[in-house]
Design brief:
The complex is a heterodimer of chains A (468) and B (415). Chain A is an alpha+beta fold. Chain A has 16 helices and 19 strands. In chain A, β14 and β15 form a beta hairpin. Chain B has a three-stranded antiparallel β-sheet with strand order 1-2-3. The two termini of chain B are 34 Å apart. In chain B, α13 runs antiparallel to α14. The chains are: A alpha+beta (468), B mainly alpha (415).
C-alpha cells in the first residue's frame, strides 16, 4: 500500500479511537460514577419531588412517630420530635445543610421516588408524582433508646443494643450529640465543636478495642491445635525487650484459656498471639469484619487490623491483647458479641425494618441476612462458656444479673490520651441469647468492669424485660 | 414501486418510523396538544424523505453520509423541539435551508473546475471575514465570534472553516506550490491567532487539528510536523499560564465540583443530566435538561444522554464514527488529489469537532464551546455544515477533472 493511503488510514484509526474512547468513558462514567454524582446536593432533580411530595414519616418498631413533615400552604416543615435523641440515626434534611443519617440514605424512599417496579415509575412520571412519600419503620425501640441515652448522659462514647439472632438494632446512642431540630440556629457551633458531635461514634468512631479483642484472639487460639492449654503469668512479660504488664501488675499464676479470658490476662494472651503469628490472628479478625466494610443503612467506618508485613514481635503481642494499632467501632464489637451469641454466625446489622407506602403496604422489608460465618458453632459455644466465666468470676462481675446468666468481656483500652476507654461487650441470657450490647466510655479513665459493665447490665436487663 | 415505498428495508423509511415515534411522544407529553408539533413533524419527515430521494437520483457518489446526517439532524431537532418548541421549529427551517445549501454547493463545486488554483482567494476571503468579526463582532459567552446582519447573527468562523480546508487542499494538491512554505505557515497561524483573539478556543483547536492532520499526510518535510506539534505544546503551556479563561477551563476540568456554583456550574449540571439519565434515559420530555445553561446549543448531547440514555448518546457517537469512516473511504477512493484532501479535511473537521464537544460536556477533556455538528441548535453551524457535506458529496463521486499528476496507479488495488 502506498504511503499516502497508509497515512490516511492511520488518521482514520486515530479519529475512530477518539470516538470509541468516548463510548468507553461514557460507559465507565455511567457504571462507576453516575450513582455518586446523581445524589450531589447541587443536582436540582433530587429536590424537584421534594418540594411537592410530603416527606414520609419515621416511626420506631412500635409505631411511635419520631420524625414527620407537615404541609403549610406551599412549603413543608420537618419535625424531629425527640431532637438530639435521634440525631445520629435519623439525621437531618435541610436544603442549606444537606442531609445526614437515614434522611440521606433513605431520601429516595422518603420522597417516594424509589419504586422498584419500572412500569409504575413510568406511569408515575406521566401522571405526575405522588403526593406523599414512603414511611420508614425502624428496628429501634424508643424506650430502649431513651434509656440508653439516659445511661450514657455525661459521658463521651456509644452504646449499641441489638438482637444477636437477626441483627436488629434496638438502641444506638452516641455522645456528644446534636439536635437536628435546631441545626439552623447552632450550625456554626456544631461544626466548630472539637468533640465533633456530628460524628456517629457508634458506627464511625474508631477506638482501640483493648481486652474486648481477646474474644477474637481466643477464637483463633481454639481453632489452632498447637496452642498450649496453660500459661504461667508472673504479672509481666518481656517480648524482645518490650515489657508488657498486667493491669495493676497482678500476677495470675497458672492459667488456662478460660481463666486467662476471665481475668483478662495480658501475659497469656500476648503469648497466644506470638504462638499464633500475625497471619492467623489477622484472618480471625477479618472473619469478624475487621478491614471489611460493614453493610449498614448508616455510614460506617471499617475496623482496622494493621498490615501484617510490618508487624514486630512486641507489636504482635500488643495486638493480641487488643492494643497496638488495632482500631474498631462499637457497632462492630456489638456484632462480635452477637456472633458468639448466634452460634458463630454474624448477622447483618439492621436499623430500618420496613419501608411502607402511605397506604400502609410494605414496599421493602429488610430481612435478617447472614453476613459471615466467623467461627463454628462448637467454637462459639466454647467462647460463650469462657465469657460466662468473665461475668461470673472475672473482671465483668458488675454485668451480672440476678436471674439470668450473662456472658461478656470487659476492656480497658490504653490510648495516646493517657485516659483509658472503658469497654464492655456481652449478651444475655447466655443459654438463649436475646440481646447483645457494646458499651464504650471514651477516655473514661476507668476500667471496663467498673465503668462500662454496669451500663451494659442495665441495658440488658431493661431489654430482657421488654422483649420477653 | 408501491411495495418499494413502504419497505422497511429502505433506510429513509426507517428514519420516517423513528421520527414519527419521537414526534408522537412529543405530541403526547405536551399538556395541550399543539398543531406546531404536527406541522413541524410532517415538515421534517418530508424534507428528509425528499432530499434522500432526490440525492439518490442526482448523485452517483456515496449515499450513506446523507442518511447518517439525516439521522443526526433528526435526533437534534427532536431534542431541541423538546427543550424549546420555537427553537425546534426554527431549526427545521434551518434544516430546510441547510439542505438547499447542500444541493447548491454540491452543484457549484461539481461544475467549476479550478478549485485548486484559487488559493489566494480563499485566504483573502478568510481574512476579510476575520477582520469583520473583530470590527463588527458581538460578544457572546465570552467569545467575540458573532456578526449581526439584519436581524440574524451568524458565526463567520463556520464559513472560514470550509475556506481553510480549501486553502490547505490547494496548497498541498499542487506539485508546484503556489506560495512559499513560510508564507503558508504564516497564514495557518494567522488563522489560529485570529481565533485566539476572538477567544474561540474550541475552534482554534479544531483548525489546528485539521492542519496537523493534513500536513501529517501530505507534508514532505516531515520535520516540520514535529516543529508544529512542539510549537503547539509551547503555545498551550503559555496560554494556560497567561490567559485566564484557558486556566479556568482546565481547572474546571480537573475538579469541577470545587467550583460547582460558579465556574464549574455548566459542566457539573451537564454531568448531573448524564448521570440522571442512566443507560436508557428518562424518556423524551421526562427529564430536566433545562437545568443546563445553553442546553440546546453546546450541551445538546447532555440532554440526549439524559432523556435517551447513555445508549442514545452512544448511538450519536456511533453515527459520527460511521460518518468518519465513510468520509475516509471517500478520500481513499477519490482519484483527484485536491478533492482527496478536501474529503479528509471535511471529515476530520466534523469528526474532531464532535469529539471536542462530546469530550467537553462529558468531562473527558476540558470544555471548549463548539457546536455538535448537525445536532446543536444554530443556523450558521447547520447551514455551513451542510455546505461542507455538499462538497464531501462531490468528493465521493468519480470526477472528470484534469490531473496534474498521474494517478493511474492509485486505483483501488487494496480494496
Amino acid at each position: 500500500m502506498e504511503k499516502e493511503s497508509k497515512r490516511i488510514i492511520r488518521v482514520l484509526m486515530a479519529l475512530s479511537a477518539m470516538l470509541v474512547s468516548l463510548v468507553v468513558y461514557l460507559s465507565y462514567f455511567e457504571i462507576f460514577q453516575a450513582a455518586k454524582i446523581e445524589v450531589h446536593s447541587y443536582n436540582k432533580r433530587q429536590w424537584l419531588n421534594e418540594e411537592y411530595v410530603l416527606r414520609g414519616f419515621i416511626v420506631d418498631r412500635n409505631g411511635k412517630v419520631l420524625a414527620y413533615s407537615e404541609k403549610t400552604q406551599d412549603t413543608q416543615t420537618r419535625f424531629y420530635k425527640y431532637g438530639r435523641l435521634y440525631g445520629h440515626i435519623i439525621g437531618y434534611s435541610y436544603k442549606e445543610y444537606g442531609k445526614a443519617g437515614l434522611e440521606a440514605s433513605y431520601n429516595k424512599a422518603l420522597i417516594g421516588a424509589d419504586e422498584l417496579n419500572p412500569i409504575r415509575v413510568i406511569t408515575e412520571k406521566i401522571t405526575g408524582p405522588k403526593e406523599k412519600g414512603n414511611n420508614l419503620i425502624l428496628t429501634i425501640d424508643h424506650e430502649m433508646q431513651q434509656y440508653a441515652e439516659q445511661r450514657l448522659k455525661g459521658n463521651k462514647g456509644a452504646i449499641v443494643v441489638m438482637n444477636p439472632r437477626n441483627g436488629e438494632i434496638y438502641a444506638m446512642v452516641s455522645k456528644p450529640d446534636f439536635n437536628p431540630a435546631a441545626i439552623k440556629e447552632n450550625w456554626e457551633d456544631i461544626i466548630e465543636d472539637k468533640d465533633s458531635p456530628l460524628l456517629n461514634r457508634a458506627a464511625m468512631g474508631l477506638y482501640t478495642p483493648g481486652s474486648v479483642f481477646k474474644v477474637i484472639t481466643a477464637t483463633a487460639a481454639i481453632q489452632d491445635e498447637n496452642i498450649e492449654t496453660s500459661f504461667n503469668c508472673e504479672g509481666s512479660i518481656n517480648i524482645n525487650g518490650y515489657v508488657l504488664k498486667e493491669y495493676n501488675g497482678a500476677a495470675h499464676g497458672e492459667v488456662d484459656l478460660t481463666k486467662a479470658l476471665a481475668d483478662s490476662c495480658n501475659v497469656a494472651f500476648s503469648q497466644i498471639g506470638l504462638l499464633l503469628g500475625e497471619v492467623k490472628l489477622k484472618s480471625a479478625a477479618e472473619k469478624y469484619m475487621f478491614n471489611e466494610i460493614i453493610p449498614f443503612d448508616l455510614v460506617t467506618k471499617s475496623s482496622i487490623f494493621p498490615k501484617t508485613t510490618l508487624m514486630t514481635k512486641p507489636e504482635l503481642g500488643a495486638t493480641a491483647i487488643g492494643q497496638g494499632k488495632l482500631l474498631t467501632t462499637p457497632l462492630n464489637m456489638a456484632m462480635v458479641a452477637s456472633t458468639i451469641a448466634n452460634d458463630g454466625l454474624m448477622m447483618k446489622p439492621i436499623i430500618v425494618k420496613e419501608v411502607i407506602t402511605p397506604e400502609g403496604k410494605t414496599l421493602r422489608a429488610n430481612n435478617p441476612q447472614i453476613l459471615n460465618r466467623s467461627c463454628s458453632a462448637e467454637d462459639a459455644e466454647i467462647i460463650k462458656d469462657m465469657m460466662i466465666q468473665v461475668v461470673k468470676n472475672g473482671t465483668g462481675k458488675n454485668a451480672a444479673l440476678s436471674k439470668v446468666e450473662v456472658a461478656g468481656k470487659t476492656g480497658t483500652a490504653e490510648n495516646e490520651t493517657g485516659k483509658e476507654h472503658a469497654w464492655f461487650i456481652g449478651f444475655a441470657p447466655a443459654d438463649n441469647p436475646k440481646v447483645a450490647v457494646a458499651v464504650i466510655l471514651e477516655n473514661a479513665g476507668t476500667t471496663g468492669g467498673k465503668g462500662a459493665a454496669p451500663i451494659a447490665r442495665d441495658m440488658m436487663s431493661a431489654t430482657l424485660k421488654k422483649f420477653k | 414501486m408501491f411495495k418499494k415505498i413502504f419497505s422497511y428495508k429502505i433506510p429513509q423509511n426507517l428514519m420516517v418510523i423513528m421520527n414519527t415515534m419521537a414526534l408522537l411522544l412529543l405530541y403526547l407529553y405536551k399538556d395541550h396538544l399543539d398543531s406546531l408539533v404536527l406541522i413541524s413533524g410532517l415538515l421534517l419527515i418530508f424534507i428528509i424523505y425528499m432530499s434522500n430521494f432526490i440525492l439518490l437520483k442526482v448523485s452517483t457518489g456515496d449515499h450513506y453520509i446523507f442518511l447518517i446526517i439525516s439521522m443526526l439532524v433528526s435526533i437534534g431537532i427532536i431534542m431541541i423541539y423538546r427543550i424549546n418548541p420555537i427553537y425546534g421549529f426554527k431549526q427545521i427551517v434551518w434544516f430546510g435551508l441547510g439542505i438547499a445549501n447542500f444541493f447548491l454547493f454540491y452543484l457549484i463545486v461539481r461544475k467549476a473546475k479550478y478549485w485548486n488554483k484559487w488559493l489566494k482567494m480563499y485566504v483573502v476571503l478568510s481574512f476579510i471575514l476575520f477582520l469583520s468579526t473583530l470590527i463588527f463582532g458581538i460578544k457572546v459567552k465570552g467569545a467575540t465570534n458573532w456578526i449581526k446582519i439584519g436581524g440574524h447573527s451568524f458565526q463567520p468562523a463556520e464559513i472560514i472553516k470550509v475556506l481553510f480546508i480549501f486553502f490547505l487542499a490547494s496548497y498541498y494538491a499542487n506539485k508546484k506550490k503556489l506560495i512559499k512554505p513560510t508564507i503558508f505557515l504564516g497564514i495557518v497561524y494567522g488563522h489560529i491567532g485570529f481565533l485566539f483573539l476572538q477567544r474561540d478556543l474550541g475552534t482554534a483547536m479544531l483548525f489546528y487539528f485539521i492542519f496537523i492532520t493534513i500536513s501529517y499526510i501530505y507534508e514532505e518535510k516531515r520535520k516540520l510536523i514535529f516543529y508544529n506539534l512542539g510549537g503547539a505544546l509551547v503555545m498551550a503551556g503559555l496560554s494556560y499560564l497567561l490567559v485566564n479563561h484557558v486556566r479556568v477551563r482546565v481547572l474546571t476540568w480537573i475538579n469541577p465540583w470545587q467550583y460547582v456554583d460558579n465556574k464549574g456550574y455548566q459542566i457539573t449540571q451537564s454531568l448531573f443530566a448524564i448521570a440522571s439519565g442512566g443507560f436508557f434515559g428518562t424518556g423524551i420530555g421526562l427529564g430536566h435538561p433545562e437545568y443546563i445553561p445553553e442546553v440546546h446549543n453546546d450541551f445538546i448531547f447532555s440532554a440526549i444522554c439524559e432523556e435517551m440514555g447513555i445508549f442514545g448518546g452512544i448511538a450519536v457517537i456511533m453515527l459520527f464514527l460511521i460518518l468518519v469512516y465513510r468520509g475516509f473511504k471517500i478520500a481513499l477512493q477519490q482519484q483527484n488529489k485536491f478533492f482527496r484532501i478536501i474529503a479528509i479535511g471535511i471529515t476530520t473537521m466534523l469528526g474532531f469537532q464532535a469529539f471536542i464537544i462530546l469530550g467537553g460536556v462529558t468531562k473527558l477533556i476540558p470544555l471548549t464551546g463548539v457546536t455538535l455538528p448537525f445536532v446543536s441548535y444554530g443556523g450558521s453551524s447547520l447551514v455551513s455544515s451542510f455546505a461542507a457535506l455538499g462538497i464531501l458529496q462531490v468528493a465521493s463521486e468519480e470526477l472528470d477533472l484534469e490531473q496534474e499528476e498521474e494517478h493511474g496507479e492509485r486505483i483501488q488495488k487494496d480494496h
